[in-house]
Structure formats: C-alpha cells, structure tokens
Amino acid sequence: MTGRQAPLLSVRDLKVVFPTPIGMVHAVDGVSFDLEAGQSMGIVGESGSGKTVTAKTLMNLLPSYALVDGSVNFDGRDLRALAAERKTEKHLWGVEISMVFQDPMTSLNPVKKVGEQIAESVRYHLGQTRTAARRQAGDLLEQVGIPEPGRRLDEYPHQLSGGLRQRVVIAAALACEPRILIADEPTTSLDVTVQKHILDLLDDLRTARGMAMILVTHDLGVVKGRTDEVMVMYAGRTMEEASTEAVFSQQGHPYTEALIETIPKINSASHTRLVPIPGQPPVTTSPPTGCPFADRCRYATDLCVAQGPPLTALGNGHHVACHTPVRTPAAETALAANAARGHTATGLEIHQSGVPIGAVTGGLGEQT
Amino acid sequence: MRFWGLRVGMLIALLLAVSMFTFGAMNLLGDPLFNILGPVAGDTENPENLAKIEAAKEQFYLDRPLPERYVRWLGDFVTGDFGVRFSASGQPPVSEVIKERLPRTLALSGMAMTFTLAIGIPWGVWSGSTSKKGLDRLSTGVAFFLVSIPNFALGVVLLYAVGFRLGWMPVRFDAGDPFWQRMHQLVLPALTLALGGAAVYQRLLRTDMITTLQEDFILMARAKGLSRRHILFRHALRPSLFSVVTLFGINAGAVFGGALIVELIFGIPGIGSLFVESIFREDFPVVLALVMILTAGFVVMNFVVDVLYSIIDPRVRQ
Amino acid sequence: MKLTAEPPMDESSGAVKARRLGPGFWLPMGWIFLIVGVALLAPVLPLKDPTDYFIRPGERPPYPPSADHWFGTDQDARDMFSRIISGARVSLAVGFMTVTMSFIVGGTLGMVAGLVRGWFDRLASFLFLVVLSFPGIVLVILIIALIDRSVLTISVVLAIGGIAPVGRLARAATLSFAEREFVIAARTLGARNSRILFRELLPNVVIPMGALVLLGVAAAILAEGGLAFLGLSIEKGETWGKLIRNGSGSRVLRDSPWVAFGPITVMFLTLASINYIGDYLRDFFNVRETGLGQ
Question: Which domain holds residue A304?
C-alpha cells in the first residue's frame, strides 16, 4: 500500500514437500505474495492449510528433510540461498525477520531467566555487553507492557502467567528491531480476555516501529480491521488474496465465505448456531487435479472437479482462485443447479436452500 | 533451610547405623585376637601365652563388652583418632595408612568421573542431535558394547590392547614416580572406570536431547538465528540433564566400588587392596575407617547431586 | 467421507514390533538358550574334565587354542573350554538364585507397602531409602569376606543387596496401579487387601517386573565377577570372574591372552544378550508407564 518500489519481501511460487511414510505431503503448493515495508498481512486458513509451513519457510525453520522450491526474496537477498549456506548470513534471522510463536507456555526455555532470553539475541547478533543488553531487555519489557520490568528480568518463565509470557516472547522477537515480524497464531492459546490485549499490543508496536508484520491465524476475526491485506490459504494453495476490507465486504471465494460464516457475530441472537464447514481439509499427499475445496463447496461444478482454477485478478489487487466466485452469475447458476439435484458435483448433499447437510447436522466441520 | 538440616541429620544417622553394623558384624563374625597374635591366641594352656593374650586383650579393649568398645571407638573416631592397626606392633596408625592410600583412590575416582562427563556429555549431545543415521547407529552399538561389558573385563581388554599391544599407555603404577608421571599411569585405569558410565550417560542424554530438541523453545531459539552449537549447548543441554544428574549420584557409588577392583587389575596400591587385605586380616580399625570414609563420600556425592539439581532446574528451587 | 489421515506415524508400539522379531531378537535369545542349555547339560556332555592337567612333555603351558583345546589351556594346562562351561554353571546359578530371592522378598515388601500404605509403607520406604543411599558393595564385600563363601551364601548376600531397588520399583508399580479404576472398583466392592493383591495387582505388577528379572540376572552375574576380582568369589569351583582374574596377571595376559579372553568373550556375550533382551522386553511391556522405568 506504500511505495511502488521493490517489495521488502517477495515470495514466488513457493512449494514445500515433506516426505513421510504415507507419501509426499505437499504442505505448500505454489504460493506467491509480496509484503511492502511497514505493511501488515494476514495469512488465514484451517490447520493443515500450509500457513504455518509458509511462515516457517520464511524463518528458515523447516526440518532438513523438507523439499523446498520457488523463491523467497528479502530486501534483494535470496533467503533460500542464504539458508543453504548456513553460516555466512547469521545476522538475518532473529535480526531483520523474527517470529512470535503460538504457545508461550512452551516457547520459552524453562531453565533460563526471562531477561537472558530477551537479551540473548542482542548479545549474540549485535555483540552488546551483558549490562547494555540487560538494560535493553528491561526497556523492551516495559514496551510490551509488563509491570515492574526490573524485577521480571530475573524471573523464570514458570513464574509468569500465559499473557505475560507471550509479552516476553514478543519482547524477545523485537529485541533486534526486526523489519518483519511474523506472528504465528500469537493468541490462540491465550485466554479470550488476554487475546485482544496482545493483538492490540502487536498493532501498536508495529505502527510505532514501522515494521512489516505477517499475522498467521485460523481465525478471520483476528485479522479483521487489523491487517492491510489478507491471504486465504487452503490445502497449501492461495484461494484468495485481497485487501482486508475487500475480503470481508466482497469476498470471492466460497471458502472465504465459509470462514466468515464461522466467526461469531456479536449482534446475532444468542444461541445462534455457527455455521461449520462440512468435511475436512484433504490430506495433501496426492493433490487433487481439480479445486482442493470442491469436496466441501456447495457451488462445486463438474469443471471444479476436472480442473483446478488459477488465481485470477479481479482488479484492485484482488485475486481469487475459483471458477464460480461468490456473487457472480456463475455462482448463482451453479448453486441453483446443485440445490435442484440435492447434491454438488462432488456428491456433497445440500438442501434446497443451498445449505450443506453436514453443516446443519453439526457433524464433522468443527473449527479449531 | 529445614530441608538441608534434615539432610545433614540423615547423613549422621546413616553413618552411625553403618558404623554400628560394621562394628557388630566384624566382632561377631571374626576373631580379632587370632589376627593380632597368630596361633598363640588359641593357646590358653601356656601361661606365657596367656599373659600375652591378656595383654593384647587389654591393649585393644577386647575384654570389654561390645557396646563399650563401640562407644570408645566412636569417641576416638570423631576426634580424628582412627586408632591403631590390629597387629602385634599396632603400627603404623590407621590414619597414616589411609593418608598414604586414599589420595590414589581419590585421584583415580576423580579422574574417572571427569572422563565420564567429558566423554558422555558431548557424545550424548552429538548423538541426540545428529542427522547422520549410520553414524548414530554405530555410536549406539558402541554404547551398548560399553554398557554390557563388565568394567573388570574392559580393564583387562584395555590393558592388553592399549597397554601391551599398542604400547600407548603405561601399564603399571609406581608410587615412587613424580606426580605427572603417576597421573599418566592413572589414565588407563580411569578410562576403564569411565567408559561404561559415559555410555550410560550417552544413552540417557541422547533420549532426553531428542525430546528436548522437539520443544517449542528450541524452535524459538532457532528463530532467533542462533547457531546450532549455541542452541545445543546453551538451550538444549541444561533441560536435558535431569536424568544424567540423577545418575551421577548413583554412578559415583559405582565408581568407588569399581575403583576397588580396577586398582587390583592395574596394581595401584589404593584403598581397594587395603580394604580387602584388612577384611581378611580382620584389621577392624582400618576396615571401619574405610567403610566410614566410603559411605560418607557416597552420601556427600548424593548431596552434591541435590544441589546440582536445584541449579539446573529453577522450578525445583521453590 | 474424505480421507482421515491414516495414523501411521505412531505405530512404534508393541503390536507392530512383535511382528518384527528379526535376527536382532533371536540371535541374543539363541545365545542365552545355548549357554543355559550347555551349562545345564554339562555333566552329560562329552567334555574334558575342567580340573584335569593336560601337560604336554617339553612344552610349558598355557597352550594356545588348538583342535584339541578350542579355547587353549590355562597356566596349569587345564582345558579352558570346559572350564568356561563349568564357570557358566556357577555364574548363571548365582545370577538366577540372587534374582529369585531378591524379587520374591523385595517384590512382596514393595507390593504390600504400596497396597496397605500407612506405617508399613513409611517404614519400608525409609529402609529402602537408607539402604540405597550408601554403597552396597562395601557392605557386601564386608559380609562376604567374613563368611564361608559358597554359591548359596554369595547369592543370599547379593540378593539382600537387591531387595531395596526391587522393592522400591515394586512399590512404585503397585502405587501406579492402586490408583487405577479396576483396583478402586474392587475396593469399593469390599474386596480385602489380600484379594486385591493376588487377583488384581499381582498379574499387573509381576508381568512388567518380569522384564526386569533378566536385567537383574545380568547385574548379579556382574557383581559376582567383581567379587571374584577381589578374591571374594566362591572358594571351590570356577566362575567366569575367577577365570578372567586368573588370566589377567601381567605376564599371562601379555603372552597368553586367550586365558583371559575366552571367559571375557563368553561373559560379555551372555551379559550383552541378557541386557538386550531385557531392554527389549522392557520396551515391549512399556514398563516406563508403570513407573518401573528407571
């Protein structure tokens, strides 16, 4: 959204494959996106959609047996080549790009003092003295809103609550003033009451520091009103990519639509049943020839089964990978046809109204 | 504070119990008089010998009841007087003998424990983190070999292979040699004692290391861009050390026990041979002193382990 | 219904392994059967007399291995092969007798302590703790040196040394089961302690403890070997430890290594096989879960 120069981070046709006993798992299957300096972006999808694997690829955290293809460019540097070299660029990860993890209960080392864990990367990468690093750790604790930072520095993680621990994790990630912060489900394991505080904190810190952020989450509600752009992933592929506003106001992909339906709405009557998505994401050992979402999609047509839809531009940076984008005549026709015969092209049974059977009976589509 | 007080109390109670047991067992099962005087002890017919017997009984308090002798001994012992040997001359005093022999055993045990840690820990860290399957399998095989072979058998094998065939290491200990030479002569026996323990440490540490390396905080450390070395030794090692530390206390006892045997194989005149000789000669004061020293050493090691525990795991401190 | 991911990763549990009893299992098992079989059958096998002197005129023993003496002879020209087998009889006997006694006494104490709790449990636990907190080998040496040393007495003393560790494990295992539903259910139904002990706990504690029996046998054989090196093994007859010690004097070892290496090899193979099978069974029964892991 800012300047039109080369983006800070540029991912092109990223593919990640894990060899497993049950076959090759295509965790990420041809994902591309750009991130400008200072911009924030959400990557949204169910578990198994490849969002976390994408984040780990950016952080060079994949296990060594993972097979990676495609290019990742950060500020003109080829991250995949740097990852392969190992030693030469040790001051990139943790310094220019850093990450906040999902579970603060397990992501802090239980036997190291909080202060040490924050000061560690400053000392390691920037070669600061113990005292200087400690002072900085104290400042960081203050910035992330921890009361009495001086005392907390010498405490161990088990002495802190979940919310405070996540603040410590954030402080540690910010220690070297990164230009990109990747937050992988940063609030999922926290109390609901704490979640908003942490998200607001991340927002504030991002604005204050002018850093870019990638917010990875399964919950569209988390990115609403927070990120500039959203990328919706499913089965390792990009389903839709648009400004956050557009995703909520004029989403094109049936999957995005389904995700939005799973967000609880404050002004709907209590006891309103949330609409789950029927079925489960496919296991991506053998990527389907057609659209991966077709099995669970009420709009699915024969074309969807036969041929995977390419990611198509709708203008204004809005991209959708769907043959029958929501709210287009094609979608109306397909839905009407499916409703008339009682099931979709993939055999998903639906009511006359167009609501999938599985959704009504509660069934399998529970969201995490 | 109360906790440590309790520990010290238990230590003292334990030493008392062990000394009572040893004292009782030796006096009930053995025949001290015979060992002081030889065959004369049985000859009560001859008045000349009878006089000797009476004199010896008096000298070593053998005519007093057992509890009194025990209290007498205990009183001397706690004031640092280990008594005199049970022999016709009573010389040299027990403390002299022990002062001469004990440092060798301590040096051997200390060197062995150092080797155990110096080999076992890096080995465990390496094998718990390597991705080279073939080498890891080989190292597991070597560890299994070392765990299964008795230390006296390993001592004989090392003595033959490294000492005699390869000629890399001295095979005899000579108490008259200069310090560093003597240390050099202790290397092979210390290795004999250390390798089995090192293999056990390696096995434990490997398992725990593999578990630790799957923890989220390791992922976070990697995300900080720290080097592999830094992550392994500064992040993964300490949380993986719990079982190794527990074992360290148990292993210390095994090292003491093993030292007695290994000393005999390599001809080191430490307390191992002294202990066995003294038991056979029923030289009670020496045996008692050694039992007390060994027990105290063992208990102190366990004490050290508890302290180590609270150092590596802050969660134990509360 | 779409593919639910098949659960393949997590099948390292017993059932799958049991189907794959490869040579890694049968080789050590075969060795154990062989050595125990030969030891049992030694009196009827056509072996040389282990105490006979096979002096060859004009040659100084020990004689190296040959067609006549497969493992060579010792310094007194006695046949090492038959001596090793005769040693196996004693070493294995000590191993099995020790384990039998320590498991019966220690196992009973531990299970009863874990079941009835109260003062008995406190007393037993305290005694276990005390015994375990000083070097048992010192006292074992002390006692053995003062008594007549036969297979039986040595086994008894070693077994006494084994009571505390076995007892503690049995107690831990019992406790972990005593909390489980089926025992609580039995209690609720008014079953008496003795009934619970025999009907409910015995099968559940004894089976996993059985996996530890083998490891105990190895430990006892090892301990006997150590005593032999201190000159404290049985007074009459051979054990592996005595044979190794006999071959480990400087000159014999340097010039005639087979005298020591024969018994070392056999003893090592036996201990290694027992350890391997013991580890295997321990994993198989998932002993860690029952608190017997350490």
Answer: 288-357
